Every structure is written in structure tokens, then in C-alpha cells.
Amino acid sequence: MGKLSLDNQTTPTTPAAGRGSAFYDATTKLLALKDDGGVHHGLLSRNASTAAQGAGFAADTYLINSDLLIPSFGIEQKMVFRWAVVGAKTAAGTATPIYTFRLGVNRTTADASLVTLTGVAGTALADNGVFTFQAIVRTAGASGVLVVSLACVHTAAAAAGFGSNEIDAVSGAVDLSAAAGKYLGLSINGGASAAWTFQGVHAELIG
Fold it and tell me: What does each C-alpha distance from 41 to 1, 22, 84, 197 come to in angstroms?
């Protein structure tokens, strides 16, 4: 039986014109491709939950398994971070939720806030929904810019329950340099009395 075996390594040198390099990234242990322009492609990082989290989120709380490990070559322009999150709320809690995109090594709310999304105040109604978060790297480097969004499809009426349907924002200048080995993840603050439970999280970084 034939077998192709590749060593884990940090990003190789940029290949000659008309060529590309395939390698297993030493940081994420995932296959990556590098083109002759020095740009990386592929499913570059991934994560998924193994248990429910909550009920909680009445204060700012890091969403477990939302953390995406940044590969050895760091954050590049046009990378896309995506999260699909399955959640539910009880009738408790009608505050305005805040969603924060964070970068750091802690995988907690101690990591640096890059940009926040302010939701619409929920209502006193139990609800179930699927949240889709996205962060597009418009500009990389020390003065990076992220375009972020949240879409929520939920069972309650449009303005009830979770309330929010679509929110988007553009960050100010944020430091995306020296990000290799750090994590980009989410924290959620459902506000006072919130009793939210997240049953599933799936996260991916696409280059």
C-alpha cells in the first residue's frame, strides 16, 4: 500500500514561479498550501465543542472551543475565520448582548479584545438559534483591520427571544502581527440574568 508521509514544519520558503508547496504546519498539524506569491491556502485551523456550555453568560464568558489556533505563518490578508454556534436561552434575561472577538494565548476573557458586536436586547421568551460569526482579515500586520459579522437564525419571532438577526462592524486598527501560536476566539456577554446554553460550536480558519 502506498503512503505519503510529510514532516510537520513551519512555513517553507516561497516556491518558484509556477510552483506550489504542500506541508503540514508544525503549529496546527494541518495540511497547508503555499503558492508562488507566498500566500497560504486551505483549511488552516479548526475546532469543535465536545460538551455543552451553560446555562450562564450573564457576564462576559469565553466560548469554549471557539478558539482557533493561528498557524506558524500568522494572520494574512483575506483569511476568513468562521464560527457556527448552536444556542438556547430561557425566558430570563432581557439585556443587550455583547459579542467580542479576542486574540491571545489564554483562551479566556484575558485575551485582547479586537472588536465587539452589540446585539439587540432580547425578550423574556425562551428561544433556540444558530449563530454564525465571521471575521474577514481586510488588512494584516500591526495595524490590522477585521470586518466582522453575526447572523442569527432563531425559532422565536424576529424581534423576540434572542432578537438579533444580523449585526456587522469594522474594527479600528488592531495588532494582528506576531499572531502565530495565539488563538482567535469569541466571548459572549448575554447581560444581567441571562441563562444561555451553547450545545455546539464549530470553528474554522480558511485561507
Answer: 29, 10, 21, 34
The phi and psi torsions of 35 (rounded to 5 degrees) equal: -90, 180
Residue 145 has a pLDDT of: 98
Q: What domains can you pick out in the chain, each with its CATH number?
A: 42-206 (2.60.120)
Write the secondary structure of the chain as one string of H (helix), E (strand) and C (coil). CCCCCCCEECCCCCCCCCCCEEEEECCCCCEEEECCCCCEECEEEEEECCCCEEEECCCCEECCCCCEECCCCCCCCCCEEEEEEEEEECCCCCCCCEEEEEEECCCCCCCEEEEEEECCCCCCCCEEEEEEEEEEEEECCCCEEEEEEEEEEECCCCCCCCCCCEEEEECCCECCCCCCCCEEEEEEECCCCCCEEEEEEEEEEEC
pLDDT averaged over 10-residue windows placed end to end, the chain, 207 residues: 77 95 95 96 98 97 98 98 96 93 98 96 91 98 98 84 87 98 98 96 98
Q: Are 127 and 120 in contact (CB under 8 A)?
A: no
Distance in angstroms (rounded) separating the CA atoms of residues 175 and 182: 12
